């Protein structure tokens, strides 16, 4: 039996955990009723998950749409690591809430004696690995491990999850991040670089090296399943003109998903550009562009004839009412030129983190160098519904840069760039908690 948090953290680390969380279980958190993971979508930024599908469930005579996604979930204990092949997240967008189910089915070594009962005082621990696995360990009510967890105070909290230190001497992910950013700030000018998948930093000469250089200083290698991640924090640098006023030189790009429906998807990007695009404004022959700013204000863009809207979303309650809907570019005939289905947005959302740090930077050349400032904007507990609500209010907008280039022959080149952006001074609307920290040398 695992009796201490140190022993559990050590076991989690042995199996690859880079972050550990705990959920205090209520009587309704069991295999029959599923495990409640929150009354919003915060859990989507905590637990990695797979492809999203939809179905309907019937309860008390009513039918509810829900989204489901598999989780690579393993139970661990002193005897080893055991796959729970049917574990999944279930999203109820009309509540909203997220639950986990199937965590016992098909796993002989699962802690059924703990997860089938309604005892108050049980604890479910989650370990998240760098490659997207979720490790689970359940502590019975009254067990030494559960008593230790309930006796602790001062743990960081994200949604319904408590953040557990990886080691006894761990001061917490936020303070460790601030300590490292302080050390980077103290270096002043740093040569532009990019960390390779082999862990080696190499010189980088392109103008977009601000983020890569910061990631290299933090030791962040390219990650296939999420955004740049340091101790569970998404790291975002942004260019400023100086460290006195911290005026950003460009908006923040929140997401860059490709449409999953509409004319764009059904007929292809070239057909979309030929129907809704426009000739290059500088007169470059053979180029068709699709750009502009699209906000949810019910106005049609003067060059493309499209507007941005939300389909199947109740702006009064800020809830998804139809999972088959989504974010849409709509023409004057009411047809969808492009559609980002909610299921696709939910799947793309796993690249976000519940916690993000926005770090200002300066650039100079030659040689290309970056300096990172002392004012760090820490944002915690983002939520998919906050994102959709910000779109409905016009705070988040669509800012594409899609183009087709050709020489009149069969050779055509298409560039895709769909991005949803927000002004830096509006970022607070994307998170439940915000804090600006001044680093002190």
Automatic annotation (TrEMBL):
<keyword id="KW-0255">Endonuclease</keyword>
<keyword id="KW-0378">Hydrolase</keyword>
<dbReference type="Pfam" id="PF15515">
    <property type="entry name" value="MvaI_BcnI"/>
</dbReference>
<keyword id="KW-0540">Nuclease</keyword>
<protein>
    <submittedName>
        <fullName>MvaI/BcnI restriction endonuclease family protein</fullName>
    </submittedName>
</protein>
<feature type="domain" description="MvaI/BcnI restriction endonuclease">
    <location>
        <begin position="181"/>
        <end position="431"/>
    </location>
</feature>
<dbReference type="GO" id="GO:0004519">
    <property type="term" value="F:endonuclease activity"/>
</dbReference>
<dbReference type="InterPro" id="IPR043004">
    <property type="entry name" value="MvaI_BcnI_cat"/>
</dbReference>
<dbReference type="InterPro" id="IPR029127">
    <property type="entry name" value="MvaI_BcnI"/>
</dbReference>
């Amino acid at each position: 039996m695992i009796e201490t948090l140190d022993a559990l953290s050590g076991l989690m680390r042995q199996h690859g955990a880079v972050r550990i969380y705990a959920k205090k279980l209520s009587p309704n958190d069991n295999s029959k009723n599923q495990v409640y993971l929150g009354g919003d979508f915060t859990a989507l930024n905590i637990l990695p998950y797979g492809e999203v599908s939809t179905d309907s469930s019937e309860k008390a005579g009513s039918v509810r749409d829900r989204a489901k996604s598999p989780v690579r979930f393993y139970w661990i204990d002193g005897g080893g690591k055991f796959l729970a092949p049917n574990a999944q997240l279930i999203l109820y967008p009309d509540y909203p809430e997220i639950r986990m189910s199937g965590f016992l089915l098909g796993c002989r070594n699962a802690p059924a004696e703990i997860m089938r009962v309604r005892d108050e005082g049980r604890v479910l621990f989650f370990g998240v690995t760098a490659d997207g696995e979720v490790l689970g360990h359940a502590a019975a009510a009254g067990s030494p491990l559960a008593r230790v967890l309930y006796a602790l105070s001062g743990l960081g909290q994200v949604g319904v999850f408590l953040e557990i230190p990886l080691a006894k001497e761990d001061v917490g992910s936020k303070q460790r991040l601030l300590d490292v950013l302080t050390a980077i700030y103290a270096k002043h000018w740093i040569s532009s670089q990019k960390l390779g998948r082999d862990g080696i930093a190499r010189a980088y000469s392109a103008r977009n090296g601000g983020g890569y250089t910061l990631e290299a200083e933090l030791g962040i290698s390219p990650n296939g399943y999420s955004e740049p991640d340091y101790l569970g924090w998404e790291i975002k640098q942004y260019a400023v003109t100086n460290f006195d006023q911290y005026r950003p030189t460009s908006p923040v790009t929140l997401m860059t998903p490709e449409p999953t429906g509409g004319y764009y998807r059904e007929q292809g990007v070239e057909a979309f550009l030929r129907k809704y695009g426009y000739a290059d404004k500088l007169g470059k022959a053979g180029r068709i562009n699709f750009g502009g700013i699209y906000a949810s204000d019910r106005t049609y863009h003067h060059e493309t004839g499209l507007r941005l809207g939300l389909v199947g979303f109740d702006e009064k309650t800020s809830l998804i009412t139809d999972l088959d809907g989504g974010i849409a570019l709509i023409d004057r005939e009411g047809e969808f030129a492009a559609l980002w289905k909610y299921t696709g947005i939910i799947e793309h959302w796993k690249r976000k983190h519940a916690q993000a740090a926005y770090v200002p930077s300066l650039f100079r050349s030659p040689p290309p160098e970056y300096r990172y400032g002392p004012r760090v904007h820490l944002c915690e507990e983002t939520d998919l519904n906050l994102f959709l609500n910000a779109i409905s209010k016009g705070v988040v907008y669509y800012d594409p840069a899609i183009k087709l280039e050709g020489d009149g022959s069969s050779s055509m080149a298409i560039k895709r760039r769909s991005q949803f952006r927000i002004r830096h001074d509006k970022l607070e609307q994307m998170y439940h908690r915000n804090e600006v920290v001044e680093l002190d040398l």
